[in-house]
């Protein structure tokens, strides 16, 4: 029996001292292995993201995200507007768990899609906004939405800060 889900979108933004073309390279092919993950992730069994590799670009293309637990997200690219917008579906492989019990591909909590928006400012830097779409089983939303949203906000901040550090090197 499948249960209805409540979908949510959260977003975070960061300014990066680099041109949109540089930032674009760091959001389409991500390297995170060199950064320590937050203690909260380790306590809650949130797998450390290692890298994401672009396989084919453009809408309909794909990217694979690799995690320290040996699992992957096979991401399908939905929108590809170089230096401006990049969106994808997460598609976690079966058995990808977070928080010890949450099966991301078919469970009560699901990661649905991600989007990056880039905007150059007058000083030549780039504002990078990340949107994350996720869902929680409707009957459990009042219990699960607050802690899941908190962890996702920490994850967004970690990811954006890591991208900033890479792009500004």
From TrEMBL:
SUPFAM superfamilies, A to Z: Bet v1-like (SSF55961)
Organism superkingdom: Bacteria
InterPro entries, per database record: START-like_dom_sf
Full protein name: SRPBCC family protein
Natural source organism: Hymenobacter aquaticus
């Amino acid at each position: 029996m499948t249960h209805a889900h409540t979908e949510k979108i959260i977003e975070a933004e960061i300014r990066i001292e680099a041109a949109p073309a540089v930032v674009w390279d760091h959001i389409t092919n991500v390297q995170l292995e060199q950064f320590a993950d937050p203690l909260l992730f380790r306590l809650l069994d949130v797998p450390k993201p290692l890298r994401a590799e672009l396989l084919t670009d453009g809408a309909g293309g794909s990217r694979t995200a690799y995690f320290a637990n040996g699992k992957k997200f096979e991401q399908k690219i939905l929108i590809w507007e170089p230096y401006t917008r990049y969106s994808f579906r997460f598609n976690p492989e079966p058995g990808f768990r977070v928080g010890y019990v949450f099966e991301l591909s078919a469970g009560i909590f699901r990661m649905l899609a991600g989007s990056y928006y880039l905007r150059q400012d007058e000083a030549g830097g780039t504002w990078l906004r990340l949107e994350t779409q996720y869902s929680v089983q409707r009957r459990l939303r009042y219990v699960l939405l607050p802690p899941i949203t908190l962890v996702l906000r920490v994850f967004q901040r970690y990811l954006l800060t890591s991208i900033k550090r890479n792009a500004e090197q």
